[in-house]
Amino acid sequence: MRIYLFLYIILKGLRVSRTSDIIYKFIETSWITKEDFNLALNASFKNSFCCNIYLHDTTLEISQLFKKFIDNYPYEYSLNANTYDCKAYFLLGSTEEEILDDLKKIPTFISSTEILIVVNDYIKINSSVFDVTIYGNANANVITKSGIWSLSENYLSPRIFHRIDNYEKMKRDDEKVNFHGRQLRASTFYRPPVSYLNRTTIRIIDNVEEEIFDADNDHEKDGIEVKLFLLMAEKLNFTWIIKKSEDRYGWRYNKTTWKGGFIKLLHDNKIDIAFASIWLNRNHYDFVNLTEPWYQVYIQFLVPRPQPITSFWALTRPFSVTVWILLVLAIFSQSICIYAHARLNPRYPERFRSFLITFIELTGRLLGSWAPKDMVSVKLQLYLWQTMGLILVTAYSSSLAAKLTNSEYENRIDTIKQFLEADLIWGTKTIPSFANFIDYEDPYLSQLPNTHRVIKNKEEIHKNIVKGNFAILGNFVGSVFFPEDEIYNIDLKRYRMMKEMTGKFYASFLAQPWLLTPINKMMLRLRESGIITFHLHDVLRRRASFNLREVLVEYDGKDGSIRVLTLTPLGAAFFLLFVGLSISTLVFYFEIKYKNNSKSIRQILRDIDRKRRSYSISIGKKQL
Asked: Nearest CA to 338 among 378, 301, 371?
């Protein structure tokens, strides 16, 4: 009777004519229910929106399990084909050999890979399916008739399969990340303001001598990214050692090879994480994984400051060249006009019949230094001339006082075009990847690589700076400029920051694939909470020197700020005064000789002295 009742329940709602449907109904009540299967899918594929399915067995029980997947999975899927964009993989089989063959087709080195394995059989705990090495950085869950297993998080070492007693426990709590004290291998180098680590010691790690940063005091354990790294270590509960990168970032040798630096170390799995203001770009991403950026950094040049211009012709600065030419032409034109009238009109003063005297008098009247009373027939003309002279002299004197009390400077170098026109060169200790920050379609930026030089040390940088045609490459972080290489502070006094930006990039960390998710989440929280901004401003406030801030200050008086007038050496003015005094002395000498029939100057002075004495005696007698 019980058997008949059970068959009645099974056959209810089914078409009795289809024997296969009756068998499916029996199988549906097998070792995994529809609800449990749905829980397994949701727990295993939390971050995927498509799925790759590997299925080779076509037995009725496998087919029914596959039907459960179809009924419960809401997104697209592909069968026995690897769609690289899909990070979810569902492996369904009856034997572990089938599963192991399919696992070889999965890119397990990608940390975002999610694997769900369903084996329609009993398997032992020592089965090869539980070999954690074949799963790489992927997250995996295994369901068999023997039980349920979940692989530990990919950031833990060693990874193990945990047996769980229900499908609810398959869910991973990504919000609570705990490395349980795992030691991470990090790498960086001395690069202000992100890392001030400098002192190292030699240690033996895995039978290899490594140069490790001591970082045993807070003053050295400083820098924006160092502070962020230490904060991550505290919150994620991991320990660390920091290796020094001798070749800094290293360099790309060809499309498939990277040489030197911590990018090579991370690519070879010799470190887990690296930081030193690493550019987030395709060139790096082709070899290693980059985290979410923490800040945007700008690439700028320091260029020589404009120097004061000193010239004898500084006295001509109040008027432009055009004004001076027009002024000379006006004097000549007026002289010719009066000279011609004096020749034709006898009523004109006789002195105007000499062109030289006319020219000298008009020049003197224009300057306000000569005003003869005899102006018959030319009174109005000369009055207007003297009025114009008064206006010109007033304008010249006012402008001269303003210009000579402030130095005139060379033009600023604020664009790449001006950079090239000034024949500047620039250099770094290593050859940078120009394509990362130079737009080769720009006619001026594309010429920058031709002006680059490889610099050995800061002494060589100093020698180039002394020559006066050297520009300094660096990064503008926050509100402070930091040179790419070390430079003497005294050399920075000669430089200012060029206005035009050469390039910009986002700074991020390098990390192994299994570290990306926890580091990215920490980076997001630090950025949203303002902690990154706090450490940025704090480090710049404490460690940025006065000279680094001074490169933003302009001293050529073109910034619109109010400046106190200060007299500058007027060598040209005093030289001109000396020339005028010499000429007047010479004229006076010849006038005296002319009036005294070419007597010697000594005799003339004696005669003048004798006459002065006799005049004094005569005055004295009259008073008596």
From this structure: 378
Q: How many CB atoms lie within 10 A of CB 102?
A: 22
Predicted pLDDT of residue 416: 93
Q: Which two tokens stand for residue 474?
A: 């660096």
- Separation of alpha carbons 621 and 598, rounded Å: 34
Q: Lowest mean pLDDT: which of 247-251, 329-333, 459-463, 619-623?
A: 619-623
pLDDT at 447 over 50: yes
What b/e string do you get for 133-149 counting C-beta neighbours within 10 Å, with b at 16 or more?
Answer: eebbbbbbbbbbebebb
Cα distance between residue 165 and residue 257, in whole Å? 47
Long-range contacts (CB closer than 8 Å, 24 or more residues apart) made by 434-442: 435/283, 436/279, 436/281, 436/283, 436/503, 436/505, 437/279, 437/299, 437/502, 437/503, 437/504, 437/505, 438/502, 438/503, 442/416
- The string of pLDDT tens digits covering residues 313-361 is 767 777 888 888 998 898 898 889 888 888 888 878 777 888 888 888 8
DSSP 191: B
Residues 6+ apart with CB under 8 A from 289: 510, 511, 512, 513, 516
Cα-atom radius of gyration of the chain, to the nearest Å? Answer: 45
- Return the number of other C-beta atoms located less than 10 Å from residue 16's C-beta: 8
pLDDT digits (tens, 9 = 90+) for 34-69: 888 888 888 888 888 899 999 877 788 888 888 889
Determine contact, residues 613/605, Cβ cutoff 8 Å.
no
The β-bridge relationship of strands 161-164 and 147-151 is antiparallel
Q: Cα–Cα distance between 601 and 333 in angstroms, integer?
A: 40
CB atoms within 10 A of CB 264: 21
Are 26 and 154 a contacting pair, CB within 8 Å?
A: no
